[in-house]
Amino acid sequence: MAIHFSFDSGSSGAGVTRRDELAELISIVSPLDTPLYTLLEHVPSNNITFEWVVDNIAAPTAAQGKAEGGSFSGAAVNARTRLSNTHMIWWEHINVSRTQRLMDEVGIDDEFTWQEVRTGLSVAKQFETNLRWSTYTAGSATATVRSTAGLMEWLVKTGISSTIASSVGGNTIPTAYSASWHDQSDGNLTRTILHDNILKPCFNKGMQIGDAIAFCPVEVKRFISNFAVAYGGGTASTSSGGRVNRSQHDDALVEVVDVYATDVGPLAIAVDRYMNNSFDLNLQMASSTPADVIIEGEKSFFMIDPRFFQISVLDPIHFEPVAKTQDSTEGVVLGEMGLKVLNPRAGGGASGITGVA
Predict the structure, then answer these.
(1) Is residue 11 domain-resident?
(2) Interior CA angle at 83 toward 82 and 87, to 5°?
(3) DSSP state of 248
(4) Is the pLDDT at 234 greater than 50, yes or no?
(5) Of 107-121, 160-174, 307-321, which range is least confident?
(6) pLDDT value for 240
(7) Among 245-254, 257-266, 275-284, whose mean pLDDT is lowest?
(8) Distance (Å, rounded) from C-alpha 41 to C-alpha 215?
């Protein structure tokens, strides 16, 4: 007579001879995308502070000519402006015991090698965050941490203070080089506001909208998509005059706008994981503007023409061993980089968006 045993794995002593089913795979559950770090050109540098020069050609004010036989005269040569920023350091430490490295680990051959890989990804994500949200600190050789002026500081400070000179990255930036930024003050976004208060000023300052990308949090991306969701019905502010190109799946419900075609050019729109409610930036403005402006990640978006923004690299992300001081292997993954804004007028954006009308 056959005897069948049934063990309850939760009982004491039950199932002790069973083999565990453990896949030879480690899944990284965190998002790894670094869009700006990947998109922008990396340029080498050889100093803590990096500088560049910008020039401006004045717009014509009226149609006019010169008198026949007249004497040559003109204004003095236009003074160019030198801008600068600083590199910032970021590193993360790795420490794995000798015993741990001898273990037979799931999914990896060596614990230290795995930690080196995952730490490199973590450092890249931190620099991705710094490119947006870091604010300028000159720093010192002994105590104060150097910090690069990130995109939000460049675009918001020069954009909102567009009628006065702004100070960013240790520079006084004349109004001729200011970006365009609109603060909706916790209000609704409409197609009129998007065009007249955001896209149009950027276009008038020279941005080629068709070459720009808007980086939006999920919330703001949803607001823009709402402009076309109700095509064929809905309210005038959200759908009237809109048009959505049907996909190859005729039975699909299209509720997204990835390219917003406007009179000033088609704007590509990307969802940005680094624009979210984890980030609030309080920017101290000049005395003749609001005392400060709070930029909340989930209520804001920015646009850039990537051709005019670069990552200045003093030291690329790399691994360095640390001297052995105990029964473990140590190392660091580190880098030193900063943001170079060749043309602030090639960027812009908006903040304080809480809904769509």
Answers:
(1) no
(2) 135
(3) S
(4) no
(5) 160-174
(6) 45
(7) 245-254
(8) 17
Q: What is residue 305's predicted lDDT score, i.e. its pLDDT?
A: 95
Q: Which two tokens stand for residue 172?
A: 């006084």
pLDDT at 237 over 60: no
pTM of the shown model:
0.84
**Alpha-carbon Rg for the chain in angstroms:** 27
Tokens 């990130």 locate to 150
Distance CA 228, CA 34 (A): 29
Q: What is the CATH number of the domain that holds 227?
A: 3.90.1690
**For residues 172 and 166, what is the distance between their CA atoms, to the nearest angstrom?**
6
Phi, psi of 222 (to 5 degrees): -65, -40
- Say if 141 falls within a structural domain: yes
Residue 25, in any domain of the structure = no
For the record, the structure tokens of 117 come out as 């890989």
Residues linked to residue 304 through DSSP beta bridges, in sequence order: 213, 347
Q: How many domains does the chain have?
A: 1
Contacts of 49 by beta carbon, 8 Å cutoff, 6+ apart? 84, 85, 86, 87, 170
Q: Is residue 155 part of a domain?
A: yes
pLDDT bin (cut points 50, 70, 90) of residue 239 is very low
Q: Which range of residues forms the domain containing residue 239?
A: 35-52+82-173+180-356
Give the DSSP per-residue string, 68-92. TTPPP--PPPPPPEEEEEE-EEEEE
Residue 153 predicted with pLDDT over 80: yes
